[in-house]
Amino acid sequence: MADPPLLALAGIRFHLGDQTILDGVDLSIGPGERLSLVGRNGAGKSTLLRILEGQPIFDGGTRFAQPGATIATLPQEPDFTGHPTVAHYVASALTDSLGPSDYRVEALLSEMKLDGACQPAGLSGGEARRAALARALVAEPDVMLLDEPTNHLDLPTIEWLEATLSSWKGAYVLVSHDRRFLSNLTRAVLWLDRGIVRRLDKGYDAFEEWSTGILEREATERHKLDRLIERETEWAGKSIRARRTRNEGRLRALRDLRKQRRQQIGPTGRATIEVGEASQSGSLAITARNISKSFGGRTIVRDFSARIFRKDRVGLIGPNGAGKTTLLRMLIGELAPDTGSVKLGANLMPVVIDQRRTALDPDKTPWEILADRNDHVLVRGTPRHVMTYLREYLFRDEQARQPVRTLSGGERNRLLLAKALAAPSNMLVLDEPTNDLDADTLDLLQEALAEFDGTVLLVSHDRDFLDRLVTSTVALEGDGTATEYAGGYSDYLIQRGPRAAPAVAPASRKEKADAPAREAKARLGYKRERALAELPKTIETLQAEIARLQSALADPDLYRRNAADFQAKTNRLGAAQSELDRAETEWLELEMLREELDS
């Protein structure tokens, strides 16, 4: 006899205005089940997790929870309100807690390299994510509901989380854009599509073929439906299926590009890369010769050389703080190397996709963002009707005239991609573009980047996305070395060979708080120790300034009142964000050095 479910929903309905989000959802979660919850951005995945958690927000239906079953959640944006320290926040998940000094809290924070005495407001994005994960894990609940757990995590931490969940005894439901993560961890799929949930009792690898089969069967019966339903199912099914079919041709082209790249990349570990003629790949975009960069006495990049051609797609990988953004900024000419040289190709026009979404006025509509008061948008020199272009990015017709603030995080990222990819450019620079994007949008982004006629530089922790797209991978290992490998992430693992197991996560602030302070000062030196003490204040000041600027720029009337002030604040926001990134990187590098010396 099967075990009774820990959680079950029957006939759950949820409406947002006149839009039906959940339309009679039935599902159950049994002990030890490993489920992925998938669906398009805006389909209602986060809403469904909130209902499973126990929030009484649904309009109809019933929720059942087995008496005594414990449930933990990881929201996309954790709320630290009322928690003075990280340890207090994590301990709040324990009903029998002894407080922040509870041995379970201390053990997990130590394992995740987090400082329990730190104030949550001072956490970076990655640290905040790890703190929220610690809170979900600490009580060893019967069911965990994890919403985008890999966002802001670097590859070593993602691999640690995979190992932790692989040995987890309880049940969990994962919402994630990371296909490799879902494939490695889940054994069944819940597909939320047009308000209902279908279940596949196979791993995520079987989902695409199964869901495509369902959409194909629906397509054959489409003539029985009214025209509105016909339009919706065609948009949700046929166009996506056709896109995936076209991807097969792109993957063949990708293999050809990787073959060319192997001919250009010299033996692993060589400082100067020997290359052949670039006629097949087009004009030379970037030439880096023996570039190096150090901050605070720590070498971030040492003696790196590369030649990057038009139509190359180069992925940058490495743990947080390893120097990916530093190398990226040197390659595009934003940051001068300490030694060596970077030469950019003639007429290079880079476009950087702003994942902070500051380029989007929340009170404007997608139509206005792309075309202002016109009907057409110029897409790399070719006029396109704005509605046609928005549909390619999976927006419904009615969303074109709705304010940006009504869009989900993934939908806003789609709009940013649409705006950036429409601009005239021969180089795209993307820093973690896959956060908040669903599988269909990832397919769309992969397609757009594969068809792009210029060069792509990409920082990402999404292993599957890297394997599908990039022609070469630059790996920064955190010790100053940056090495280029042909192919994607899986190719990098094969070529690199075995290495020591990675650290669980970036170094913490006070992992060795009991080490004598005078000894640490003597080892670090006066200048580094002073920088280590002053940088947190600098970071806090910059964070406060960025918050003030973002608040001011959110005023929809600012531009009309004072265009010069709007532009000045926009420019200062970009500069402050760059300064914050540099300060956080320098602080992390100094802290890692201090802890290495203390160990």
Q: What's the tally of helices?
A: 19
Which stretches are poorly predicted, pLDDT < 50 over at least 5 residues?
228-233, 266-282, 500-522
Structural shape:
globular
- Determine the strand fraction and express it as a percent band: 15-25%
Query: In CATH terms, what is the architecture of the largest domain?
Result: 3-Layer(aba) Sandwich
User: What's the CATH first level of the largest domain?
Assistant: Alpha Beta
Please state the CA-atom Rg, rounded to the nearest Å.
Answer: 25 Å
Looking at CATH, which topology of the largest domain would you report? Rossmann fold
Please, could you describe this protein's structure?
The chain is α/β, with parallel strands linked by helices and 599 residues long. The protein folds into four domains: 148 residues, P-loop containing nucleotide triphosphate hydrolases (Rossmann fold, 3-Layer(aba) Sandwich), CATH 3.40.50; 61 residues; 146 residues, Rossmann fold; 82 residues, Valyl-tRNA synthetase, C-terminal domain (Helix Hairpins, Orthogonal Bundle). The chain contains 19 helices and 20 strands. Strands 5-6-7-3-8-9 form a six-stranded mixed sheet, with helices on both faces. A six-stranded mixed sheet has the order 14-17-18-12-19-20, with helices on both faces. It has a three-stranded antiparallel sheet with strand order 2-1-4, with helices on one face. Strand 17, helix 13 and strand 18 form a beta-alpha-beta unit. Helix 8 crosses helix 13 and helix 16 packs across helix 19.
